[in-house]
Amino acid sequence: MDEWTPDAVAARFTEAAETARRLPAGRVQGYLNVWPILLRMAPEQRPNDEERRFPPSPAAVDRMLEAMRWMQILDVESRHIVWMRADHFEWSQIAKRFGCAVRTVQRRRNIALSILTENLNGVRVVAASCKEVRNHAGI
């Protein structure tokens, strides 16, 4: 991509979260299950019984790993905020997790996406975390 925007970066993180969800579960090698897969009727289904999804393509996995490398630019709190929103958490849930107002969490996510966008576009980034931006701006 020639010029990154915060919306494009957020879309890439959303795609990465969906790709991570579609990855197959890790299994211990050497164990075999010979029981047949049972189809459950509606009253028997558990809430976590999801439809089987196709595994992600290798290109999608590469894009996910690229987005994961971008996370290393941010501080830990910003990483969690960006990833939780990409994973479709509601703003109120994210705000409760960090003990602050919804608008504060939205502002921190926007700052984090701006930091990533500037870094991806090759602009020299003054601050590597939301806290440094807040301290620099006197907030």
- Average predicted local confidence, pLDDT: 83
What is the number of E strands? 0
Query: Gyration radius, to the nearest Å?
Result: 19 Å
Oligomeric state of this protein: single chain
Total discrete domains: 1
Count of individual helical segments? 6
Find the structural class using helix and strand composition: mainly alpha
Gross morphology: globular
> Major sheet, described briefly?
none
Q: Which residue ranges are poorly predicted, with pLDDT under 50 across at least 5 consecutive positions?
A: none
The helix content, as a percent range, equals: 55-70%
Strand content: under 5%
- H-E string: HHHHHH
Distance between the termini: 33 Å
Short description:
This protein has helices at 6-22, 58-71, 76-86, 91-98, 102-120, 130-137. The protein is mainly alpha-helical and 139 residues long.
Structure, described:
With 139 residues, the chain is mostly helical. It has one domain. 55% of the residues lie in helices and 0% in strands. It is built from six helices and no strands. The radius of gyration is 19 Å and the shape is globular. The two termini are 33 Å apart. The model has no long low-confidence stretch (mean pLDDT 83).
